[in-house]
Design goal:
Layout lengths: L13 H9 L4 H7 E5 L4 H14 L4 E4 L11 E3 L2 E2 L2 H17 L8 H16 L3 E5 L16 E4 L7 H4 L3 H9 L7 E4 L5 H12 L4 E4 L5 E2 L3 E3 L2 E7 L9 E4 L5 H18 L7 H11 L9 E4 L4 E3 L5 H14 L5 E5 L7 H9 L4 E4 L13 H7 L2 E4 L3 H15 L2 E5 L2 H11 L11
Parallel strand pairs: 1-5, 1-6, 2-5, 6-7, 7-8, 14-18, 15-16, 15-18, 16-17
Antiparallel strand pairs: 2-3, 3-4, 9-11, 10-11, 11-12, 13-14
């Protein structure tokens, strides 16, 4: 991204603070508008659910997320609209000029660059609310600088342990620090009780409170279909007759968790109580069903069907594959798989290999792991394993076979693999994609 290293010259919030001072960012106004989202998986989906719920209350909402699939401007949204190209370029130059003023050895990274660009755009547009997805962690993440009074913790897995800590507890503590002292941390249903107790104790030391997303709520059984998940939601744990039906465009128990967590965060930020304004809450529930989030178990082509998912951890792939098999026959599913070399290659490969029977293994042009690192894992589970030289070759082989045998194609392994397969499937050049 404009030649910037991913993390810049080390962690720290001092560069962001200097930018805020230099550009007279109104932190108090920013804090009043802001909701922060952090966690290992589900951050982007939850951010979009929060956005939909707050919009249903009649407010204009900005949303900053990562990563993007095809256009970096996907990260900056106001309602359904991306940042205009002219605004992106103007604010980018402002941030780059600031970076040039910094001393050598203390330059910003690509995520800081994008965050500061978002700060300028939202300061220009003045939305009523802004939902911020943290990059990595919370304690040292630029998003901490907005001093949000409400944050969400979507999930916890071991990740970036060299920065965040070697245990799930330490990672959770780091991520919970994204919210301002005295703020509220909404905990997803995916956070187990034992970890939730530890997070609550840690948060208490800085005057924060934690709130389980489903506290005093009723969540009915989840039914997954190709069109998304269905479940019921009750604003009271004791009155099932008042439960409301909910239909999401996103499928999976994990997306239901994201949706109800996003709804609770919107309620807390808005200061709403269901018993005081039932109609508004029902409107917010309905808005969850309109939420879209590209690349999350999404069907992106038909005849033959191509599904993609950008999950890149073992737990994420376990959830996605389990969900897909609820509505798609295993024997009619052809999986295209490739994983980034920086991820848990062996664990991710093992998760996927044990769930399906027909595979095309390949390597994304961007950061893809050598197929030789995981091919044997798939051969232990299946006799139907094809190796493809690259994502263009994999897309061609998959489309031809799917047409011939009446199969659906599912591309798994991460953002780079999914985006490249979709681009190649549509006749484009996957090497032309620009990622961070």
């Amino acid at each position: 991204m404009f030649g910037l290293p991913k993390f810049g010259d080390g962690i720290g919030l001092h560069r962001v603070e200097r930018f805020f001072q230099a550009h007279r960012i109104d932190r108090a106004a920013l804090a009043r508008r802001s909701i922060a989202v952090t966690g290992t998986n589900g951050k982007g989906s939850t951010a979009r659910f929060i956005t939909s719920a707050v919009e249903a209350a009649g407010l204009r909402v900005g949303c900053f997320t990562s990563p993007h699939l095809f256009d970096v401007r996907e990260r900056f949204m106001l309602g359904d609209d991306m940042i205009p190209q002219a605004d992106f370029e103007r604010h980018a130059e402002t941030v780059l000029a600031f970076n040039r003023s910094l001393p050598e050895g203390d330059k910003i990274g690509s995520f800081e660059f994008l965050f500061l660009l978002a700060i300028l755009w939202f300061q220009q547009e003045k939305p009523d609310a802004i939902v911020w997805e943290a990059g990595i962690g919370g304690r040292y993440d630029p998003v901490r600088s907005v001093c949000a009074s409400v944050s969400v913790l979507t999930s916890i897995e071991l990740e970036h342990t060299e920065l965040l800590g070697a245990t799930e507890e330490l990672i959770a503590y780091d991520k919970s620090d994204v919210v301002a002292p005295g703020g509220c941390v909404i905990l997803s249903p995916s956070i187990n009780d034992a970890l939730a107790v530890r997070i609550a104790a840690y948060a208490h030391l800085s005057g924060k409170i934690t709130l389980p997303a489903t506290a005093s709520r009723r969540i009915g059984p989840v039914v997954n279909t190709p069109k998304g998940a269905r479940f019921t939601y009750g604003f009271s744990a004791t009155t099932p007759a008042a439960d409301q039906p909910v239909r999401l465009r996103l499928a999976g128990q994990h997306q239901v968790d994201n949706a109800v967590t996003g709804l609770r965060a919107a309620e807390v930020w808005l200061g709403l109580k269901p018993e005081e304004n039932a109609e508004r809450h029902i409107a917010m529930l309905t808005a969850l069903g309109r939420t879209r989030w590209p690349g999350r178990l999404e069907k992106v082509a038909s005849a033959p069907d191509l599904w993609i998912d950008v999950g890149h951890t073992p737990k994420a792939l376990e959830a996605v594959t389990r969900t897909f098999l609820e509505f798609s026959p295993r024997d009619k599913t052809l999986v295209v798989f490739g994983v980034s070399a920086s991820k848990e290659v062996a664990a991710i490969a093992q998760t996927v290999a044990g769930r399906f029977d027909h595979f095309i293994l390949t390597r994304a042009h961007k950061a893809g792991a050598d197929v030789g690192l995981f091919a044997e894992t798939f051969r232990k589970h299946s006799s139907d394993v094809t190796l493809a030289a690259d994502t263009t070759d994999a897309a061609r082989i998959a489309k031809e076979r799917a047409l011939r045998e009446g199969m659906s194609v599912l591309a798994l392994g991460g953002l780079f693999l999914s985006a490249e397969i979709q681009r190649a499937w549509n006749g484009g050049d996957p090497t032309s994609l620009e990622f961070l």
